[in-house]
Amino acid sequence: MKVWDKFEEWFVLTALAVMGIVLTIQVFMRYIFNYPLVWSEELARYIFVWIAFVGAGYGVRYHIHIKMEAIFDRFPPTMQKVVTVITNLIAAFCFAYIIPYGINFTISQHSIASPAMGMPMSYVFVAVPLGSAVLVLRLLIDTIKVFRPAKNEEGGR
Fold it and tell me: Which of 67, 106, 115, 149 gives 156 a disulfide partner, CB atoms 3.0 to 4.6 angstroms apart?
């Protein structure tokens, strides 16, 4: 997982930078030269899809997803663990359910070209099963960590 962790961080940061650069060039071309690029918005949208699905695993890894902390923090520690395990398992089940459908959909979209760039749409949609698989793995790892304290932490979570 350490190799994936580094790749994930590198990918999300690089993709954000590329998306920002592409959109900046698009704005510059559109408003300064009055010559909009036809492919830039499409590319930025597809990069954003990848960032969302790969970045979701990053969010689980660092516990930065939205949760109702005002309510969650009022629970006793044991109940917090129970709620975490239940929500992780429900989310893992949902993402695991998506994987085979995402694979089938991705395969079915390979012969369809994107409107502006002409690339196979499967390149965009493969982010769904890949991101879902990473999320399932991350959620299961997070669930296991609930039951045993991390090495660098004294009280566990």
Answer: 149
Q: Domain count for the chain, please give it.
A: 1
CA dist 143 and 147 (Å) reads 7
Residue 53 counted as domain residue: yes
Does residue 152 lie within any of the structural domains?
no
- Give domain status of residue 155, yes or no: no
- Collapsing DSSP to helix, strand or coil, 120 comes out as strand
| Cα–Cα distance measured from residue 61 to residue 80, given in angstroms and rounded to the nearest whole number | 17
Residues forming a β-bridge with 113: 120
**Tens of pLDDT along 93-139?**
999 999 999 999 999 999 999 999 999 999 999 999 999 999 999 99
Which range marks the domain in which residue 123 is found? 2-147
Question: Which residues have a Cβ under 8 Å from the Cβ of 103 and sit 6 or more positions away?
Answer: 129
- List C-alpha distances in Å: 116 to 40, 53, 95: 9, 22, 30
Q: What is the mean pLDDT of residues 79-88?
A: 93
Residue at 154 is within a domain:
no
Alpha helices by DSSP H, listed for 32-76, are: 40-61, 69-72
